[in-house]
Amino acid sequence: MFSLKILIVEDDSVSALLLQRALEKNNHEIIGIADTGEKALDLLDESHADIVMMDINLAGELDGITTTEIINEKFDIPVVYLSASSDAETLNKVVGTNPSAYVIKPFNIRELNMVIELAIFKDRKEKELQKLNNELEEKVRMRTAELYEANKELTKALEKEREINELKSRIVLNVSHGFKTPLTSILSSAQLLQMYAEKDHPFKQKIAKHAMKIENSVRALNNLLTSVLFFGKADANKMEFKPKKMFLGAFVKELLDTVKAGIENDVTIKTELGDLPKTIVSDSEILYQTFENLLSNAVKYSKDGSEVLFKLDYRDGHLHGTVVDNGIGIPKSEQSQLFDRFFRAKNVGIVEGSGLGLSIVKKCIEVMGGEIDFSSEVNKGTTFEVKIPVK
């Protein structure tokens, strides 16, 4: 991840120190730590920052939300909110300030990195779009006399805008619906947890149940954000293949642990590992995206009580991976669209999804120079086979 100049605005010194260490560990430069909104504005007057990590509840006359409004107007710097609260009232307050992202405390380093990268990406794209709009308006004003040429430029710009709006609409329809359900679950479960905690009776089972709902919902949100950011990089031609030495056994364990932790139905994963080398040279992040999406999809669309088979082998300088499920299958008439972005088969029913998983897999395979094939039959299941060159 690229290095950024970051201002931390946090009135709890311990939280600020932990956040500073986490950010510096990822090679970011902390230009200062402010415990009030007033000090934050003074620091920004003195030093440039690429992004601000803002605690919502601050001491002093300026709270985090008011301080953010001033930063938006005066400095135009992306702001990521930090808060231990995710209730509806807090969310309604921050929406009006158009935050770049929102992080619930306590956070983990991986989540924090993802949120910061998403915030910077969002800010840059908004500024690029604004710059394009400004340039277009200037061209129209300057070339009024050259009506024909001006109309040509305007037509091109409108066509580009139409494509952007169409893509935006599809994202809103597919991805925002995926945000809504997990957010509702997070809020309701958090409120119930608070009610149970306030009483003197033991509610360990209920607390554990709702804590699991929160964990699964947050995981679903993180997966959606990761998918959106992935295609943002791909569309901007910033997706790079960075192979390096990795321990294959540890990679497989982390992959299976993550997928199993996210299983919400009664499905088990059977693993068959061939004679695998201890280490390989590949891009672990892209490799992880490939198998995590394939396995998660297989589990999600499988019937309760069924089994997903995951086979991994190494032959002739290639990883050979196979994922077999006995799920709903893919209608033959729709199989040609399987790897299209946002595509979801008509037989998925009420199973939630964004339609991005398999398109991510396809892109990852292309970047790694591999091959992917599949076979599927409705109500009998689907088999995916991938062949990926490694060193």
From TrEMBL:
It catalyses: ATP + protein L-histidine = ADP + protein N-phospho-L-histidine. PANTHER family: SENSOR HISTIDINE KINASE RCSC (PTHR43711:SF26), TWO-COMPONENT HISTIDINE KINASE (PTHR43711). One of its GO terms (molecular function) is phosphorelay sensor kinase activity. It comes from Algoriphagus ornithinivorans. It is an enzyme of class 2 (transferase). Pfam families: HATPase_c (PF02518), HisKA (PF00512), Response_reg (PF00072). Residues 174-391 form the Histidine kinase domain. This is histidine kinase. Keywords: Coiled coil, Kinase, Phosphoprotein, Transferase, Two-component regulatory system. InterPro entries: CheY-like_superfamily, HATPase_C_sf, HATPase_dom, His_kinase_dom, HisK_dim/P_dom, HisK_dim/P_sf, Sensor_HK_Regulatory, Sig_transdc_His_kin-like_C. The keyword Phosphoprotein applies. Residues 5-120 form the Response regulatory domain. The keyword Transferase applies. Its EC number is 2.7.13.3. SMART domains: HATPase_c (SM00387), HisKA (SM00388), REC (SM00448). Residues 118-170 form a coiled coil.
